[in-house]
Amino acid sequence: MISPAGIRPVGIRPVGLSLAAQSRLSARPTTVRLMATKAIDIDKVRAETPGVRHGVHLLACGSALTSSPVLDAVTGYLRLESEVGGYEAAQDQAEMLGGVYDSAAHLIGSKREEIALLENATAAWCMAFYSTPFKPGDRILTCEAEYGANYVAFLERAQRDGIEIDVIPSGSDGAIDLDALEAMIDERVKMIAITWIPTNGGLINPAKEVGSIANRHGIAYLLDACQAVGQMPVDVADLGCDFLSATGRKFLRGPRGTGFLYVKAERLVTMEPVMIDHFSADWVEPDRYVLRPDARRFENWENAYALRAGLGVAVDYATDLGLEAIQERAFGLATYLRGQLNELQGTTVRDLGPQQCAIVTWTTEGLEPQATVKKLRSNGVTIGASGPNSTLLDSTRRNLPVMFRAAPHYFNTEEEIDELISALAIEIHQSQT
Ligand SMILES: Cc1ncc(COP(=O)(O)O)c(C=O)c1O
Predict the structure, then answer these.
(1) Is domain 323-432 classified as CATH 3.90.1150.10?
(2) I need a surface site. Which of 40, 77, 142, 370 has the fewest CB within 10 A?
(3) Is this model's pTM higher than 0.85 or not?
């Protein structure tokens, strides 16, 4: 693709040439994808991650370092817009932009028609949640690790629509208690809406088992997969979810301001979006509109196409590496980090669950997380802090203070984790003198 000036815009994704694109199937796979785990070429992925030359970044659960192909796709697209105009760039790049739906669909095992591209996971989640009608007395079941953005929406609809919110208790391992969930179901339960991986730690809720229960009872199932997509394989057919929300900037390493929603085709046909415009619906007669048939009825007309180009590249990059391989390495680095933290004086790892993901939270006596995070950053080590109100139910139940939070990704190394541990050890030492 050559720009009018005869210059090939750098980083615009060649349509259909990535491995992911080559192996893409437009129909939903009928079996769970079984791929042999292949090793990740760490030198290559680090060479393609400019941020690793600026310091240690261990916060994929916040906003991960983007890869240079993603950066090139975004800047290349913006350059094209500046050269030919925004509408014209979109026309010229229509095939590539359409391919982003295929990429997202392939990543989660859906059909492209079941994908809406939105600006973040919350917008995606809210589109599904607010477009679902409830009547007074209807119940929603959620989990103790539910994310704050979702929970305030529950509260808002409880006030406005008279719905009841019931929290499924966690078992002794911290994950959703499936027997308790089963026992809570009655004819008033109209939705199960849970967070698969919470923002505040290593817990992986049994999303697939929750899906089996929801499906058996014919209850709508909304899954917040914001922290899962990009760090492990995700297959919507296997999960049995009706709706799934995802973000671009975390483990997928896409640009900020990107996300997507999956809506199962069978649900789609009966769903009226909470808001529409003349993109989501065709204005066919002065007094009549017709909704788009696909999940894009949850989008609207104007969009950040440069960011979408970056999201598509990020998704294909992850797919090409292999989500099994990404999971193996990211989870492995997190296990290493937990092991090292356990050796640190006054430090308690706070992660729950029988199997733990790449998000690690902890507290260290004498260290205030927010202030320490700032100091570490000025010394070239980036981690984060997680405050109680992102996950207020869990934080209240476990009496959690603000915690340290880190999430190594596949491009990180054990040496980088050692650097974090050394930096923390210095802070602990200084706090005692
Ligand atoms: C579990 C969970 N769900 C949803 C979100 C919201 O994602 P976004 O900021 O992309 O809307 C987050 C963000 O941290 C999260 O951790």
Answers:
(1) yes
(2) 370
(3) yes
